[in-house]
# Entry
Amino acid sequence: MNYQIDENGFYGPYGGAYVPEVLYSNVENLSRNYQAILNDPDFKKELSRLLKVYVGRETPLYHSPSLSEVYNTKVYLKREDLCHSGSHKINNTLGQVLLAKRLGKTRIVAETGAGSHGVATAMACALLKLPCFIYMGEVDIQRQFPNVGRMRLLGATVIPALSGSKTLKDATNEAFRDWINNPLNTFYVLGSVVGPHPYPDMVARLQSVISQELLHQVPEITGKEKPDYVVACVGGGSNAAGSFYHFLNDPEVKLIAAEAAGKGLDSGFTAAATFRGKPGILHGSKTKFMQTNEGQVVEAHSISAGLDYPGIGPLHAWLSDTGRAKFVAVTDDEALDAGLALSQMEGIIPAIESAHALAALSQLNFKTDDVVVVCLSGRGDKDLETYIQYSNSKKTAHGNV
Amino acid sequence: METFKKNRLKTIFKSPEKKVSIYFTAGYPALTDTLDLLSLLAESKVDFVEIGIPFSDSVMDGEVILESHKVALENGMTIEILFDQIQKIRAQVSIPVVLMGSMNPVYQYGFEKFCQRCHEAGVDGLLLPDLPLDEYEKYYRVWYQQNDLAPIFMISPQTNGDRMKRIDELGEGFLYALSGNSTTGSTSEIGDNSEYLQRLSNHKFINPVVLGFNIKTKDDILFANQFADGAIVGSAFVKTLKGGFNKERTKHFLEQLM
# Structure
């Protein structure tokens, strides 16, 4: 089975570039040039230098004693939360902003959900000296306010997305609209493996630095040649794509994708696109997303703003259809419990997004000598208020019994 | 046997006069306003109409049309209802009708069935801005042809000469040329792109070319007509419907436009 894009930018039936004519030449130009730029020795040298000295790569592969004990196996955390920006998102934004400069673009737009991609884009733009405009849903601006302040401090302009559900999907729409209105000077730095070809492949390649490091870290640190499991959360799916990338063609490595079930798969408040979605065309690609029978996009729900997206990237739709990756659904409460547990047991506060991957472990059956790598995609500083409120409400509920 | 009717859109463009088209969103401001609006526009001097199929996430549209999509969906508008409405009024009005919208609702409805229903209901053209030309050629063209449905494609300032040629070869009815780089109803002025408009005007197209986006007034139409075979007014018209369809107010707007 092939898990790379074909010459038209499709993974099986998913992918492609469904863009209006005004964006066609931009997308086409990017398609023609991105691989050559990413593979150019000077570009690679500059990007890897920045990933080392600016981001702090490589990120550790850390053995988690308490999770290993809980699941009676060997659990390792790939510490993307230790990246300079606080999440894996900076791997992609540095690459794309460097690429934008190569293409002669002078202005950057991006969407953001939790703010992690927005912060990472704002940092890359500050470093590489390009003006930066971030669209963020009005709802997300409220629930991730610390990141809004960070973006502004970094010199970015944060523009509230006021349409639709006022979350990540709508921020993405607004970023596309901005690009349509400014196609000549502007580069759209997409934050996930979504959007028209070549974005899904380009973002997967830029994030594949995660699995690239695992190729040598796993043997060095675990003694095993390769992991038995790689587990990652999926909103659009960029950290999962990056964690899976070098293992896609190795069937001995089981790939687990944790989707946000929100309040439950049948609650009507979910973001689990492989469970509740069907194929269609959204944000420039054919992929799976939640929609009505008439093809209207259904608003997603997740406590995690970064996973609060009705679709997944086309690679993940394909991994789901082919069974190459196993998709599991994790509720808001399960994720919060897993996040609080890691904080208390090991002093690591994970982003609520990443906590979904941690919670997925309880749905799997491991052997004692399995090597289980969980991508800890980001840190939870932005989520403190949610964690604290949840923790207090549990204490109160407990006290009332 | 159904009598084969000639495509109305292709017929009107046989005459050399400049054309004016109006865009409105199906099911806005009220669900059944589609019918009254079509009747009114058919009685006016408007040459053809474009009816927007509402979509929750239309990236090509600006504030005014987005709002109309939202309201239309809240009103319960669906593709099936729209076809029924057009079919119902088709016996009384002969004005050419083009449907316009995002790919996904059409894809979910079923592309082949959609084209068949267009034919049954009396739709003359179909414009899906996010339909790639390659896919049209490979998969969908046959259904347009079987149902005498004109495929309408867009041209933008970003479209180079070779691609203009290809679009012109594939398109029928007319080519929808954007007045500039923008979403619908933006504040930019259509005169800002004179180099591109001149390029449009110089290019030898097989099809008629109609200019759309940000055309709000009679002056804009006259300006567009210097470069193209006609003009389309969308957001400016939809704006007049806000708060409820008022026949006199709409008539007045149309009179001022032409």
About this structure: The first helix of chain A runs from residue 21 to 39. DSSP finds 16 helices and 14 strands in chain A.
